[in-house]
Write a structure and sequence with these properties.
This protein has helices at residues 14-32, 45-51, 57-63, 91-94, 127-130, 153-169, 187-199, 212-221, 233-246, 284-300, 304-323, 337-349; strands at residues 4-8, 37-40, 68-71, 99-105, 114-120, 137-141, 144-147, 174-179, 206-211, 228-231, 256-258, 263-265. 46% of the residues are buried. The protein folds into two domains: 1-100 and 276-351, Isopropylmalate Dehydrogenase, CATH 3.40.718.10; 112-246, Isopropylmalate Dehydrogenase (3-Layer(aba) Sandwich), CATH 3.40.718.10. With 351 residues, it is of the alpha/beta class. The chain has twelve helices and twelve strands. Strand 8, helix 7 and strand 9 form a beta-alpha-beta unit. The strands form two sheets. Strands 2-1-3-12-11-4-5-10-8-9 form a ten-stranded mixed beta sheet, with helices on both faces. It has a two-stranded antiparallel sheet with strand order 6-7.
Amino acid sequence: MKLKIAIMNGDDIGIEIVPMAKLVLTEALKTLGYDIELIDLPIGNLAHSKYGDTFPEYTVSQLNEVHGIICGPIGHNNYPRNDSTWKMPPIRKKFELYAAVRPAKSYDNSKNIDIIFVRELTEGLQSSDTIVGGYPEFRPNDDITIASRVITRKGSNRVAKAAFDLAISKNRSKVTAAHKEPLFRLSCGMFLEECVKVSKEYPSISYEDTLIDTTAMHLVSNPESFDVVVTTNQFGDILSDIGAGLIGSIGMAPGLCLGDNIAMAQATHGSAPDIAGKNVANPYAMIMSTSMLLSWMGSKYNEEKLIMASNIIEESTSEVIKERKYLTADIGGKSSTIDMTNAIIEKVKTR
């Protein structure tokens, strides 16, 4: 079976960094003599210009045929309001991508930060991720806005399992569940109940739970104390950005959205329209997200060469970061997006 990966640039800097990730991916696979079918698909602005919708049926139908997805950031903040064709593409909900794996790793020798955040993706308060139709927010009059939060046992249980499975596979020793149960006794309470239940299935992994505000404070004051952190949708969105800040730039924060049958590489950062088209965006997060996808696909489909390709990309990218010769401005360098990518590709070629 020939595996297929869909590639969607997204908006703004996505048009620059996703092609860079594709170049690195292609070179790593070439090094190993392994062939994957890469399929370019429209999403966001490009999709709307072609099909009148940011997530058209054509794209959805093609995604049903692939084994992995690489997706750039979506510039939905600048989409027209009150027009259903200009929506944040509900790709996570559509394909049941229920867990976002977001590592935060420091390359600064003065820090020892190596945290994996696991964020639930299909529930909670994040409206674009939690519905396939309608809106979970509404305003009955000019003085009142009502928003809903959804927590289920299924959603809580499976994201907790994803966190513990990740801890096992990455040789981590502890999982921390972040919550606000004393205030949200039913919603956070259900999430916490499922985390406790799942923790008992993994006796080799230490488990603790902490309040979300305490977690945020300790991330800043003592980040080395964390290993794997699992939490609900909105809390995870915030905590993973704190993690990115701890390591110096949101451009250093890769991500992988996991489902049972498919996964999507998508960097943690947004589409950054203010720097789009300037060839200055940091490609690290998108390239490392792609590496994470290859590792997942390799394990899922028992393809050792994909795991090898993932390791090659990770090692090559890490070398470029540590050498500090070809870095973008956000991490203290003067190189362009293309120059930093080319430096990584040169490292890949030596593997």
